[in-house]
Each structure stands twice: as C-alpha cells, then as structure tokens.
Input
Amino acid sequence: YLAQQNRMVDVFERNETAIVRVKVALILKGKDEQQPKKALRVGTGFFVSQDGHVLTSDSLLVGGAGRVWVEHYQRFYLEEIVGRDAISNIALLKLKEKKPPKFSFLQVTELPGLPRPGTFVVTLSAPLQFPSSPSFGIVQGQGSRFYNKLFPTRMLRTSVPVGPGEVGAPMLDLDGRFIGMTFASLPDLRSSCILPARAVQRIRDDLFFSGKVSYAWFGLTVKSQITVEEG
Output
C-alpha cells in the first residue's frame, strides 16, 4: 500500500502545475426582454502545449461566453477560444497574452489500448475554490452507450465521482500516462465517463488546426426522381 501511495503522490506532484481552474463569464438573456443576467461558470482544464493551449469542458461555454480566463496558482490569465465540439464536450483555449511563470503541460498521446477494468487511475481537478487536488479510483468498464445516449467512441467508466467544477479534468494512470478526460458525471452511480486518450488527441488536433471536429459517417442518400412518359 505504501508503494502505491507513493506513486499516486508522485503522479500528482509531477503534474499539478498543468491544472487550471477555468472561469467563464456569461450574459444570460431573459424572456420578454427582461434585464440580461450575469452568470459565472467554473470548471477544470489543463495545459496541453508549451504555448499555453488548454483543454476544458465545452459545456462551460454553452450559452454565449463573454469572457474566459483561467486561474493558475491564484493568478488570472485571459483566454481565447480556439475551437469547440459539443459532441465530445471538449473546448480548446489559448492564453491571449502572458504565460504563467511556472507551468507544465500534459502529453496527450495515444495509448496501445484502452485500460482494462481494475486499472488504478488518478484524476487531477480544481474543484470549486479549492487548490488542484487528486482523486483516486479504478476503471470499471467500457461502453458506447449510457441509457439513450450514444457516445462518439468507446468510453471508459471509472469509480471516480465528479463534483461541481471537475468536468474536463484529466485522468492519469500510476505511471503518469494520460488516460483520458472527464466527459460526464454519473451521480447515481458515484462514477464518471472518460473520453479516452486516443479520441482526445484527435479532437485536440482538429480543434487546433480548424477550430472544429470532423466526424466520419456512413449511410444512404436518397434522391427522388419523377419520370414523365411521352405518349
């Protein structure tokens, strides 16, 4: 147990400077031309490049973001939105001006395969107003559907519960490798759905180069045609 504990502590200490708290100022329009209301949404994000790119939850930006910034060790930095994807619930941000004096970034790379059920995982998040914090759990399974929701890829289900401000947090294994990103909370099961590293890598690259994600599809296209017979 002590060796396992030391590995979790090491994973957190090596990567905590990559975690940020994302804050989004919103102006919500009321009905019947009422006075617009101001709102603040808070979530977790993490640096994925030396240039200050940040991945976070797209749900933070729904409704028309006015201003977006991140908090890193009690300092605040304005961000611009590079791209968004509602299907995967991922948004890519970038620092507008200066960078934090000391920060790291997570290597988002494809793993040989999905982690097996029982694999230990560590989630790094910025819950509410608290400093960056680790959570520990295991991979519970894989799947492409939850109730009536069909996921765009095979998702991981973990035993790590996700609270307010924690969607968008990265998840690592005990070797410090990036496993995936928190996609959604499953409060009834006290667990969470994780978008795996392979999907996060592809979505990040699409958002970086074009600001949107291209999804493959297959099906049939039907075209009606009317034939007029002469006679």
Remarks:
- The two ends are 89 Å apart (CA to CA).
- Residues 225 and 231 are 19 Å apart (CA to CA).
